[in-house]
Amino acid sequence: MNRRTTLHALAAAALLAAMPSFAFAAVDVAGVKFDETITHAGQQLKLNGAGVRTKLIFKVYAAGLYLTDKKTAVPDVLAAPGPRRVAITMLREVSSEDFGKAFTDGINANTSKEERNKMLPQIMQFGEVFAQTPVLKKGDQLSLDWTPNEGTQCYLNGKKIGELMPDVAFYNAVLRIWLGDKPADSALKPALLGEK
Question: Where would I find the Chalcone isomerase domain in this sequence (predicted)?
Fold first, then answer.
């Protein structure tokens, strides 16, 4: 093996050794790191997109959407098979009452009355999740997980909160808070869809 071949082999080995760190690199959004891949329900999910929810001039939270495969169109996200996750990290303190109201307003703005009537028990359960936590503090991490054949489960700082909500239509109604025709934040929607 000559010197040039040895150098090429070493360069290739160095590149291969560095690849796992690239594969699991984190995306930084307003100081919050979102892993490029996570494992949920035994499957690897990819970060579809991430962005910041702002209200007026205030940064409220950073959110990331994880799917089994990246999707850029809302219908494809809503129809995506397999587990899904919305990961939220609070960037400021918000009362759970205000946070719960924002979720309810988002669902109301992006679903029909008929859809809401069908999901009413789950919407009520979802409201109880926020009643269990008086305040969401800066740095708190909330995740909303969909697991096929099980349902939607909420976690706060890794701890399960609330009951399992079984209907995928409910999870999609929650996703439409950010991805619907009247999203909570018009800049966050394209960010979650992976648009640069």
Answer: 26-194
Task: Sketch out the chain's domains with CATH numbers.
Answer: 24-192 (3.50.70.10)
Does 178 score more than 70 pLDDT? yes
Phi, psi of 56 (to 5 degrees): 60, -115
41: helix, coil or strand?
coil
pTM confidence score = 0.86
Residue 169 phi, psi (nearest 5): -60, -35
Rounded distance between C-alpha atoms, residue 76 and residue 135, angstroms:
34
Place of tokens 């009413």: 120
CA distance 8 to 169: 53
Give the other-Cβ count within 10 Å of 75's Cβ: 9
pLDDT of residue 24: 52
CA distance 184 to 15: 42
Q: Which two tokens stand for residue 136?
A: 């969401």
